[in-house]
Amino acid sequence: MYHIYMFAYRGKGKASLPFFGNIRVHWVLENCNTGELAPLNTLRDFGKVSLFLAANATLAASIIVTFAYQIFNRCPNQSLSGCGPDNLYLVAQLVVLIVNFFFVIIHMLMATRFIMNCEFMLNVKEVGGRPLRPEAVASVLSRANLYYGIGLRQTYYSIPLFSWLLGPWTLVGMTVLYLGFAYYVESTNAFLHAANHVIGETEGASVFNNDG
């Protein structure tokens, strides 16, 4: 719910999303059809990171599935009905973790797909005799970043979900800590402070001006 709240303010300049969205658009406008390798290397590194996170999520999900299967095998008659309540509770926790990592894999692979499309589009001037506008390339990159951002947040979710294995109160405590940390990292004040040092704005709010 917290991340839905942050995304709801995307168009109102209340979070870091508009700032970095504008940065990506200007990056595409400045590097489209230049023929240079540096922008392609940047996109390639972006794709490597998303693939790395997808691979880690796959490994984590595989380990958890193996552990859950071992618990299932120890149950009488190898059925959930024969498992005790403690084992059923543990299996339910593991299933939630597996589902979370499954969505991490899907979103990171989708991000990689759009990153690769953006790589091919970056130095293409025409398609079917019609010019390929840089804004179209920026739109593809924004879509890649959307999937990457969702997958990254789902990776963050695994921290409180793993703490759930230690008990419900550990889950509550880690969730509160996570929300506080995430709000600080993604809130307007934190990013305005950083942006003021980078861009040199005297009025922080102007950094998030979508007109520029």
Automatic annotation (TrEMBL):
Keywords: Membrane, Transmembrane, Transmembrane helix. The chain crosses the membrane at residues 49-69, 89-111, 161-185. It comes from the Eukaryota. InterPro entries: DUF599. This is DUF599 domain-containing protein. The lineage of its organism: Eukaryota, Sar, Stramenopiles, Ochrophyta, Eustigmatophyceae.
